[in-house]
Amino acid sequence: MIKLNLNENFICRIWEDSSCYSNLQTTSGKNVEIIDTGIRNPDSGPDYYNAKIKIDGVSYSGCIEIHKSEKDWKTHKHKGDNKYNSVILQVVFYKDTFNNDSLNPVVKKSREIPTVILSDYLTRSVREIWKEIINNPSEKFRIPCYPENLNTSDEIKKEWLSKLADDRLELKTAKIKLRLEEISGDQSKKIFWEQVMFEFICEALGYSKNRKQFLCLSQKTDLTKIRKMKLSRLQTDSLLFGLSGFLKDLRFKDDYIESLKNEWESLKSVIRKDTIEKSEWNFFRLRPSNFPTIRIAYASALLFEIINNDFFKKIILAFEEGQNISKELNALFKIPEVSDYWKKNYIFGKKSSSAIASIGNERIRDITVNVILPLINLYSAYFDKTNLNSRVNFYYRNQKQKNGRNEITRVMEKQLNMKSGSIAAEQALIHLHNFYCVREECNKCGIGKSVFGGTAVHEPFRIILY
Fold it and tell me: What is the full DSSP assignment across 358-372?
């Protein structure tokens, strides 16, 4: 067989379509029956989870790992990585031309993973399958009322989207309010507002792949205690990298690393918090500039600004007195400066060939929309600051959104024939998608009721981002 240079995404498409193969066997000759190919994993770790198979009649449930060839298990260094302990089958496309027992995939306690050579069991040629996949892309995104909603008046759409913009801001505000009430008996104290601000900013710094880890890290960071400790910048680095688990068993040695370790030895007895396991952090499929190490370095610099330089008050003043709120917020979030080490290193012990930006304008924009606006909205309501509340809402409804459009907003704009010119309009479209279109709540949607006249929508549909 002539080996085409196929990527793993293509192999995954074949794996998911059982019509492409039949009568699978492992390399040791055991029969394999696929009950469920599993759910695709977008993050680090095995390619599929919750798969169900039978090998010689014995049922197995767990993860599937996809590779181009047998040697990739070793090349990708899966042995010793705990994320792969639940793999029940390795599916490779091509058999290697030489036999080598060392290529057999092995996980914890020397358990050997059975392997299937997929190309040996195809029901048609690779080229035929390739043409089918190219000519049949994923099903297009469609909301239930499209294209019928194109006949609905813009006034109805705008009125409904205006309401959803308010709903989305209130939803985010309520989430922050709930956390504030959890940590504070006295919400008049600024330190608790600073704590929730730090926690939610950290969560946003984690993006989708490390959001939970960053939230966990920030909640281990008690600002009340830390303010009393009067930490230096080196110590805030040591604190966060220590709590995150990155200093544990760190083999690299240089002056900065040794200083962090020494400081952590003193700090951990005072902080008394369990550390996060280093293996919980995701680096896979992330740009180096978005590595959690870079984001933790920024969180450390931000923590120092919050504790020592009244960062929260400066945010309030940007809304109360700022002539250009967006510009002033951008400048404020550029103030926290990472340690020199993180201006030239993506991870411990490895230098970058170019300068590293600690935070970009897009991330600042996302933090503003998802954290700062609902936080200040809550703050203004709690302290009855009418002018501040008005400025927050004016900014929300009138600030132009730049480069913030994602797959959801692009498709929603097209299928509603509406433009999301402001932050509020963009957020309204996301809210409409998440809480009405996906859930088939057309009878509760102002646009849906206009289109369907209150008639329930029972037609099943799938939404796939492309």
Answer: SS-HHHHHHHIIIII
